[in-house]
Amino acid sequence: MRIAVLTTESTASAEAAATVVREAPAEVVLVGVSDPYRDRTRTQRLLAGTRYRLLPWLAAEYVAPRLLRQRGAGPVAAAARARGVTPQPIPNVNGAATQAMLAAARPDLIVTCHFDQILAPETIAIAPRGGINLHPSLLPRHRGPMPCFWAALDGDALVGATVHRLAPRIDAGAVLAQRRLEASPDTTVSALARALHMAGARAMLETIAAIAEGRERGMVLPPLPYRGFPDADALARAARLGIRLSDMRDWRAGRALGGVAL
């Protein structure tokens, strides 16, 4: 089976995405990387809407990995090279250029890990076996871009990661596999995201093997409400509860990655 892996450069998911690329029981024919800051206006609106309370978290997740960027650096790039693939930038996953690149690569399955663009049905359909995604929550709980924050704010004692089918509705496709972990009150949102992505990577590898062997078993669950980025009030409430988005350990973890050079 041939797979295309799509991801976003981040502290939360780089090691997990690299693990999937490096150990996937399939031929990796494409590794695509999205730029989280390709829409600067959207980023500025997000920051303003949170009264800049989200800035330290964004820095730890997306700025820190770029500080030591060197051409060919970073775990995803290294894993891709080991599989004989050069990572490709994905400015618009549903654009004609990316669709042509996917068609030329001829993947049987599209695999996404912390990819920040929504694949249109026609993009997913390029792969005969569709697509699967790793999401760091126990779906259907906490659909959306910051599930670890909402799990912490809700006081979830049990957290986890889900591998699910890509579908037109965000984080609402059939659940294929889940891994559960006990939440620690001392961890940051960033550290929790790293742990859940790594747990999900193992589930992703098993799911890829199951699909290749025709053993896929999915369960469609009624989706719960979508939860987007928190607003300033939610972030203030989290701070009063002692919830930390990130700390210097997360910053150092990001810097250690060295970025995913394209």
From TrEMBL:
CDD domains: FMT_core. Pfam families: Formyl_trans_N. Residues 74-208 form the Formyl transferase N-terminal domain. InterPro entries: Formyl_transf_N (IPR002376), Formyl_transf_N_sf (IPR036477). It comes from the Bacteria. This is Formyl transferase N-terminal domain-containing protein.
